[in-house]
Amino acid sequence: MNNLSDKSAPELLAPAGNYECFRAALAMGADAVYLAGKNFGARSYAGNFERGEIESCVRYAHLRGSKVYAAVNTLAGNREIPELIDFLKFLQSARVDGVIVQDPAIPELARRHDIALRLHASTQMTVHNLSGAKVAAELGFSRVVLARELSFDEIKYISENSGIETEIFVHGAMCMSYSGQCLMSSALGGRSGNRGRCAQPCRQPYRTDRGEEFVLSLKDMALINEIDKLITCGATSLKIEGRMKGAAYVASVVETYRCCLDEKRKPTKNELDRLNRVFYRGGLSSGYFDGKTGPKMFAFRKPDNPYAESARETEKSVLERAAQNENNFKIPLRAELDFNIGAQIWLKVKTESGAAANVESDYVVQEAKTRPTDTNKLINQLSKTGGSVFEFGDIRIQNDGGFAPLSELNALRRRALEDIKTDILKRYDEAHFSEIMLPPLSEGISVPLKKSGITADVYNFEQFGALLEFERENGKELAYIGVPIDELCEDPAPYESETERIIILPRNIMQKDEYENYEKQLKRLKSLGFSKLRVENISELLRRGGFEMFGGRRLNITNSLSAELIRKAAGLCSVFLSPELNLAQIREIAAELPCEIGIYGYQPLMLTENCITKNLGRCPCGDRTNYLTDRFGKKFPIIRDGKSCRTVLLNTCPTFMCDKMSEVKKSGAALLNLSFTIEDGNAVKKICAACFGGDHRPREFTRLHYYKGAITEKANKIKD
Prior knowledge:
By secondary structure, this protein is an alpha/beta fold. The chain folds into 3 domains: 275 residues, TIM Barrel (Alpha-Beta Barrel), CATH 3.20.20; 102 residues; 239 residues, TIM Barrel, CATH 3.20.20. Strands 1-2-3-4-5-6-7-11 form an 8-stranded parallel beta barrel, surrounded by 5 helices. An 8-stranded parallel β-barrel has the order 19-20-21-22-23-24-25-31. A 4-stranded mixed sheet has the order 15-14-13-17, covered by helices on one side. The radius of gyration is 30 Å and the shape is elongated. The N terminus and C terminus are likely disordered.
């Protein structure tokens, strides 16, 4: 059923959106299965599992030597914390092998409430470099699910140097955006991907200079041709995506990877065709594993499915094989039966691994008046294990010719099988759960926030100059000004007069070589007097000597515990709260510690490794702003992540709360942020003026989630 005994082979991890998928995955050889309960899972539209079903799945898997991981990978609001604690305690009692987590509050909740669980950092945490993996380990995670956007070399480097288990996706759908960094569904329709409710707007067509195309729709990933590299990349676990897929899909993908991993070979043409038949989105792609990006990864046109006619037969066939495998799986037993006249019947049962059960009947064997119960009949009766997973092999019997009703033997057998099942599960627990202990979190520090007021982040020097002009012309002053690190390093001189106020804005994504360059950039800027730094990813939750640290919006902070944990762990002056919170939720967190919220800006909706405009045949590295246009005629601006070739897709209109300053200030947030991206200098000054009582309003704008909220329906809602 699985390959756990071969420690050189990575774990094969399969999805289960329902019980049929769960059984199919194990039947086809998955070493582990991940599933979710009815709440807190990032696929809320999958069937998912009730608590009793989770307990049954865990017993079913553990009996077969396989593992079950529970996905608790959505962000939680303050008012959900009690329910979250209760669910984590349940998962501990259910003996799940690990919990996949996005919210950084969960390790701290586990510590405070003595919940012994292995925690896996979800790919929603956007861990994409060595530093991020090390920070995850410090926070209490035993495994990190790496971003899909990493290459073989990056995965190997992190796996070999981080001191933490790594898990990588090897097959299934790919999000266009880095996981955890997509707010497109949330902003456009209120269905948050961080709450498992993504409406997949990336799968819709968009108009460009080339016409209407599916420019954000990636083909499915398939690393089946890279088996040799998957075995040597150092990853602990190879993960198949697909909790929204059916049992035939799960069975087929698991079967193919299981065979290729066990036989250490590439797939046959028939196996590749079978993968396409169970799900087709224009073919399969190696994703980012080869370190390349570009148009070949996309299904720009919705293709006709050449496998449509044969798909049904393939699905029927693979499900039949899964059912047969499930029926064929048996745990062999050795048995000894004492069937002696004048004594109770004794049955001793053992497995090859050492699990054992000894049961005794209340019935005393009688002398046979007519026909004694012969040995063959005893063997035959014991062997009737029905639909159980057990199968008697070697049966030794002591029989001196007595008699007992067959019902007594049947009852004894049932008790023995139940007892040995209990012993197998007990031994599994002893082997896998005896040493679960979260490492203590290093003592944090509370760094005071020195200023409060309005902050502004700029994208270029024109916007920076406009801010200074506004201040001189109006006698107003911003508390802090954020400037991209690449902009500062390209020519620091124009910014050096404001070193006391400037917050360095790093790139949002920094893989290995970029991170090494980033360290050099920081050293240079520090020598020039720049001493403040924005933190946008957990890879940056490091206490840097000489820098005043400010949390960034991409940390996805949605509750007080996460805010406090991250603030103290990194020594942050303030935390930037998620744009998915409403004013009531903000007020609850801001009452406890210094917070920053965004009150103006084109909200980043996606952060993509693929350059959207380069894929369309033109490089956007000049000053031109490019756009995507949706089916309603709304235009989405496209900018770059610093000076990299990554894309940031912005909302069609800015979030604007500058005319609601009295309400915003009542939220208690210490810092109110203006984020400038595509604005010219004149627009910058108008927005600043609006914050200080001016009557300017953008022609089109959104309140985003300030009056509704996307994180939890249980929080108070405020009407505009």
